[in-house]
Amino acid sequence: MYVRDAKNRDEVWLLDTLEELGFDDGAFRSRDYVVALDEESNQKAGFGRIRVHKGDDPFCEITCVGVPTRWRNQGVGAHVVERLVDRARIEGFDTVYAFSSAHRYCRQFGFEPVESSSLPEGIREHLERVREDDDGAIAVRLGDFMMPPRLRERFKTATPKASGEPREPELTAEDFGYDESAKTKYSTNLRR
User: Fold this and answer.
1) Within a domain: residue 97?
2) CA–CA distance, 175 with 180 (Å, rounded to integer)
3) d(CA 81, CA 84)
4) Within-domain flag for 185
5) Which residues fall within 8 angstroms of residue 167, CB to CB, at 6 or more apart?
6) d(Cα 139, Cα 162) in Å, to the nearest integer?
7) Gap between the Cα atoms of 149 and 191, Å rounded
8) Does residue 65 form part of some domain?
9) What is the pTM (predicted TM-score) of this model?
10) pLDDT digits over 3-55, tens only?
11) Who contacts 139 (Cβ-Cβ below 8 Å, separation ≥6)?
């Protein structure tokens, strides 16, 4: 299992999974995302976004961290957050924010709650916009990032849990009205 920067070919999966998990990313750009991948199966296991807010007082936000149900509780989200923090540091941000009602999750990595009254105006305004969709959202600011050892260990052995949903049946040529046994002018059926 590893986390890498998203590529253009990840866009469809990202958009589908954002929708599946109920995220609304109106400013979607795949280059802002990282993706967690299982090395053995090449399955995507999670994602997250770093968003740089430009302006008079620029700031960096970690947002849209998501893990499909079958990959949860295995440290995937934690490693996505770690990769996003690394990217923020590379982009020159010593301070990284997150705005969410899931602030308890963020606290295990070193994020601390910040009173909205002590935030710079631009960040406070952004928090108010986030609260329009997430009533319980608060601002948390990262001090020193730390990865809980239990999450590092879980990530090393992460495997997808069985999905409780039935899989769609695989479509065959007959589903499209094509009889593979019939000989046609363009037949590539070499069985005789």
Assistant:
1) yes
2) 11
3) 5
4) no
5) none
6) 35
7) 57
8) yes
9) 0.77
10) 999 998 899 999 999 889 888 777 788 888 999 999 888 899 999 999 888 87
11) 97, 98, 99, 113, 114, 116, 119, 123, 127
What lies within 8 Å, CB to CB, of 72 at 6+ separation is none
CB 71 within 8 A of CB 160: yes
In a domain, 183, yes or no: no
**C-alpha–C-alpha distance, residues 130 and 42, integer Å:** 33
> Phi and psi at residue 155, in whole multiples of 5°?
-65, -35
Cβ-based burial of 170 (10 A; exposed 0-12, middle 13-18, buried ≥19): exposed
57's tokens: 């007082």
157: CATH = 3.40.630.30
User: How many domains, in total, are found in the chain?
Assistant: 1
Q: Which amino acid is at 99?
A: F
| 140 in Cβ contact with 108 (< 8 Å) | no
Which residues constitute the domain of residue 125?
2-176
DSSP characters for 4-68? EE--GGGHHHHHHHHHHTT---TT--GGGEEEEE-TTT--EEEEEEEEEEPSSS-EEEEEEEE--
